[in-house]
Hints:
Helix content: 40-55%
Radius of gyration: 16 Å
Strand content: 15-25%
Low-confidence stretches: none
Subcellular location: Cytoplasm
Oligomer: single chain
Catalytic activity: guanosine(527) in 16S rRNA + S-adenosyl-L-methionine = N(7)-methylguanosine(527) in 16S rRNA + S-adenosyl-L-homocysteine
Strand order of the largest sheet: 3-2-1-4-5-7-6
Number of helices: 8
Protein name: Ribosomal RNA small subunit methyltransferase G
Keywords: Cytoplasm, Methyltransferase, rRNA processing, S-adenosyl-L-methionine, Transferase
CATH class: Alpha Beta
Binding site for S-adenosyl-L-methionine: 70, 75, 123-124, 136
CATH architecture: 3-Layer(aba) Sandwich
CATH superfamily: Vaccinia Virus protein VP39
Number of domains: 1
Mean pLDDT: 94
Amino acid sequence: xxxxxxxxxxxxxxxxxxxxxxxxxxxxxxxxxxxxxxxxxxxxxxxxxxxxxxxxxxxxxxxxxxxxxxxxxxxxxxxxxxxxxxxxxxxxxxxxxxxxxxxxxxxxxxxxxxxxxxxxxxxxxxxxxxxxxxxxxxxxxxxxxxxxxxxxxxxxxxxxxxxxxxxxxxxxxxxxxxxxxxxxxxxxxxxxxxxxxxxxxxxx
Length: 204
């Protein structure tokens, strides 16, 4: 995918595209020393990272408050924050347990003036009220639901980016959790799925 195709699909403003190009350049530089993403994925930044993250808005277009668990290199959280910049009430919480990744995220947030806060801590220990809690490549569904439970209990919904083994993960997760889940196709990878979780409680 080209930047032009990304802008056409998302309706991103020219200022958002400038921020995305800046983020891409900083990520490329820092990845050489921090190993934030697989280096082979960087040439496909616009589809594999930017569009993969931005597609979440197609499911929750009106949501302005998000929490990204295990934010890592900023996918999907930084992409969401860039596209939400300037929207009333918008805020993204970037929850990450590794301090060095938090420093990278804070640098991007500060330099681009994004509506986001970096939280250095364990996802399940936070008490943040958001409309949507999300994550990408963090953990199998059984553990991921444990991380997301406080956010969903506070009234949010889960919307997670997962791979082709997600149905097996959901079967395993149902041994520990009661939940309502809807599987949606990924727009960035035909093998991927989006998992929308609307309710969640632990099996007793």
